[in-house]
Every structure is written in structure tokens, then in C-alpha cells.
Design a protein that fits this description.
Radius of gyration: 30 Å
Number of helices: 25
CATH class of one domain: Mainly Alpha
Shape: elongated
InterPro entries: Ankyrin_rpt, Ankyrin_rpt-contain_sf
Keywords: ANK repeat, Repeat, Signal
Distance between the termini: 57 Å
Number of strands: 2
CATH superfamily of one domain: Ankyrin repeat-containing domain
Strand order of the largest sheet: 1-2
Structural class: mainly alpha
CATH architecture of one domain: Alpha Horseshoe
Strand content: under 5%
Order of helices and strands: HEHEHHHHHHHHHHHHHHHHHHHHHHH
Helix content: 40-55%
Length: 441
């Protein structure tokens, strides 16, 4: 909240001309508030037709004139009648209900008010009727959304304008920190974003806003922001596009970097590692075309090989090894700054199939970490990865081998220390048996 309560937005007409809030022939869908559904990648569920009258003052249970809806409403449910009228666009029904004392600010189990329902559907006539009946602009649903937030989520710019002119707080913020600009950017509503940025007391764009737009691939909006404020293109913004597999968005962001070439190179290299970690092979290939260095490492010495192995992205690993064998095959036997080899990273994630492939590429499954003397078996036991433990045992790894000479712990010690009972039992059953190589765990 920025303290500017009831300041109408000076909406620039040009920013709103031609907007169709419910274009494309999409069906009318009333708002149903759930947790943080308005900022997630799924539409909020429709308001269920749970029907119950909520009349102030105990109005007699008689059907209203021309009100076929009211005649058929069961009285043992939980959604106020006015909600049903709003969701169906029945202005006359709503008018009659209000005239007979219906609570215009009644809320359903999700905290949704009739004004929120009408706002979600872009029904100006219904919204105006409710506003004229003193509907509360500041009423919030369970997740803290106001009718203004709901209208923004559904891209109903005409309703946004109407509510702001009626005195809605443009800067109202939900308990989770989501405000009107976050919603507009998350849903890719360029015209609403433009209007908010052109207001008398405008919102200020930040790196986080561009990160949201990049994550969800709103390319035109991203291009608008990058063109106006290229300094907002940072590591986290590019990585948001990379991890979501947004090829076009990534191109737009990289094209917008106007700062020194060494900073651009650092961003591209960091994005390459992030693509390997998140398994975004197509984006990784794009980044190589954009000049990323295949042998780049992060602050702790992890390369694309280390990250692909750590997160079990076999397709990424095999692709880069195929195209850059001379540069990358040596990295399979190169530790990071923590002394961990790729086999240790695979064991940490319990990726026994990756361990199998690394062994096939000539890597030793008995390699010790340079800082603590752990073998892949010790790592798998410590992290409780039963399948990886059984695989490594089948490959001849020794349960008795300590992590460090004399002072270290055995696999059995680590299982007991970390409470991995199933692994401890497996070790107890097999530690006296000679380990035999097998084809699979």
C-alpha cells in the first residue's frame, strides 16, 4: 500500500482504445477466489451455483416479478442469490433483489462479492448497478483480492477504469504482496500496464516485474519494458525466461542488453549454466549461438556438465558431450571448488541411471571427494537414496570403506547417523557378502 487511497487513475484514453475485455468468444466465467490463483498458471474455478437468499431484514420468501431464477433457488446452500444474478448477467433480477433488501456486500465461502463476480465478467451494467447500491470497493476475498484485482486478472480494462473512477484504490496490495501491476504483468495485459505507468502517481517498474513477464513469456510486454529500461535485464530476469524454456523471450532480453560486453558475456554464460540445470536444451543451444562459452563455470566451479549431471538431465549431458567432446569430456573427471566430481553430484540426487551412464563414459564410481573423502556411495547413503545405494553396491562399492582414512565414517555409520533405516538394514544384510557386478540396480 502506498498511502494513496481513493485516487482515481488518470487513464490515458489512447492506452485503452479498442480493448475487448472478453474477446475471442470465450464463455462468461465468474470469478472464484482461491488462495493465490490469480497469479498462478491456472484459471480460478467458477463460482459454484450454491444458492441461498441473503436478504437483510428477513424478506418474505416469495418469487420476485419476472424472476424465474429466484423461483428455482434451493435455500439450503451457501452462495448469496445476488451472486447468481451477477454471474448470469441478470440485471433485472439483481435490481429486484437489491430493492427487496439483498445484501450488496454479501460474500460466499471464498469471500467473493457480487461486484467481484460482475467485474470478472466485464459486465459494466451490473457493476454500475452494484456501485450505485454502495457496493464496497475495498471488500476483499479470502486471498485479499479486491474487485479491482479481479478485473485486472481477467483483463477487463473497462471495468478497471470504472472502478478507479468510482474511487477504488489503485495501490491496494494483497497480503502476499501482489498488487495491480503484478497482476497486469503476470497476465500480459499490456494496455493496463501502460495505463498504470502513465498514471499521475505511477507505479515504478522493477527487475522483479520484468522477471514475471519473462517467466510467463509475454514477449510484447517484455520488449516494451526492455526498450524503455534496458538496465532491468539482469541475471535473474534472463534466468526466469531460460528456466521456462522461453526462446523468443530470451532473444528479446539478450538483444536489449546495452551494457559493457563483459557483463553481457557473464549474463549469457550464467544463463547457459541455468539452462543445463533446468534441462532446457533448446535454450542452451540458443545461448551458444548468442556467444555463451561452453566451458564456463559458476562461482563454485560447476560447468554445464556438473549441472546437467546434478539435475539428471541426461539429454543435455549427451548433447553437449557429442558436440564439444574435446572441451567437455575432461570435465567429467574435473572436481568443482568443493572437491566434488560429477559422480558425487549424481549420487547426491540419487540419480542411479546417471551414475550408470557416467560409469559407461569411463568415470570411476569409487572417486573420493577432495574435501571430505566421500565416495559416491557415502553421498548416496547420507542423502537416503536407496536405489542409488543398491546400484553402487552392485557395482562393487565397499560398505566398509570409511570416508577418510582412520577417522572417517563407513556407509553403515552414515545411515545410522542420518536415520535412514531401510538403507541401514540393506547394509547389514549385505556388508558381509562379496559385492558382485550386475547390469542394473
Amino acid at each position: 500500500m502506498r498511502g494513496h487511497v481513493h485516487r482515481p487513475l488518470a487513464l490515458v484514453a489512447a492506452a485503452l482504445v479498442g480493448f475487448q475485455g472478453n474477446s475471442g468468444g470465450t464463455p462468461r466465467r465468474p470469478f472464484g477466489s482461491t488462495s493465490i490463483s490469480q497469479c498462478q498458471n491456472k484459471p480460478p474455478p467458477p463460482t459454484t451455483l450454491q444458492h441461498r437468499r441473503l436478504f437483510a431484514g428477513g424478506v418474505p420468501d416469495t418469487p420476485l416479478t419476472n424472476d424465474r431464477l429466484v423461483k428455482t433457488i434451493p435455500l439450503n446452500q451457501y452462495t448469496p442469490t445476488l451472486h447468481i444474478a451477477a454471474s448470469s448477467g441478470s440485471v433485472q433480477v439483481a435490481t429486484d433483489l437489491i430493492a427487496n433488501g439483498a445484501n450488496v456486500n454479501a460474500s460466499d465461502v471464498a469471500g467473493t462479492t457480487p461486484l467481484m463476480v460482475a467485474a470478472s465478467l466485464g459486465d459494466q451494467t451490473m457493476c454500475q448497478l452494484l456501485l450505485d447500491a454502495n457496493a464496497d470497493l475495498d471488500a476483499t476475498a479470502v486471498d485479499g483480492s479486491t474487485a479491482l484485482h479481479v478485473a485486472a486478472y481477467h483483463g477487463q480494462l473497462d471495468i478497471v477504469t470504472l472502478l478507479l473512477q468510482a474511487g477504488a484504490d489503485m495501490y491496494a496490495t494483497r497480503p502476499d504482496g501482489i498488487d495491480l501491476l503484478h497482476i497486469a504483468i503476470r497476465e500480459g495485459h499490456r494496455q493496463l500496464v501502460a495505463a498504470l505507468l502513465l498514471a499521475k502517481d505511477p507505479y515504478i517498474l522493477t527487475e522483479f516485474h520484468l522477471e514475471i513477464a519473462s517467466k510467463w513469456g509475454h514477449d510484447q510486454l517484455v520488449a516494451d519494458v526492455v526498450s524503455a529500461q534496458p538496465h532491468l535485464v539482469t541475471f535473474s530476469v534472463v534466468n526466469a525466461a531460460v528456466e521456462s524454456g522461453r526462446l523468443a523471450t530470451t532473444r528479446i532480453l539478450l538483444a536489449g542488453i546495452t551494457r559493457p560486453s563483459d557483463l553481457r558475456q557473464a549474463i549469457v554464460n550464467g544463463a547457459l549454466l541455468h539452462a543445463a540445470a533446468t534441462g532446457q536444451l533448446a535454450v542452451l543451444q540458443l545461448l551458444l549461438e548468442e556467444g555463451a562459452e561452453i566451458t564456463a563455470t559458476d562461482d563454485i566451479g560447476n560447468s554445464v556438465v556438473h549441472w546437467a549431471v546434478r539435475h539428471n538431465h541426461l539429454d543435455v549431458l549427451l548433447c553437449v558431450l557429442h558436440h564439444f567432446p574435446d572441451q567437455l569430456i575432461p570435465l567429467l573427471s574435473t572436481p568443482n571448488h568443493a572437491g566434488e566430481f560429477p559422480v558425487h553430484l549424481a549420487a547426491r540426487g540419487g540419480h542411479w541411471t546417471m551414475l550408470q551412464r557416467l560409469e559407461g563414459l569411463g568415470m570411476s564410481l569409487h572417486e573420493r571427494c577432495l574435501t571430505n573423502g566421500f565416495t559416491p556411495l557415502h553421498v548416496a547413503v547420507m542423502h537416503g537414496h536407496f536405489k542409488a545405494v543398491t546400484f553402487l553396491h552392485a557395482r562393487g562399492c565397499n560398505f566398509h570403506q570409511p570416508t577418510e582414512y582412520l577417522t572417517g565414517k563407513s556407509a553403515s555409520d552414515l545411515a545410522a547417523q542420518h536415520g535412514h533405516d531401510e538403507i541401514a538394514q540393506f547394509i547389514a544384510q549385505h556388508q558381509r557378502e562379496p559385492s558382485q557386478h550386475a547390469n542394473a540396480a
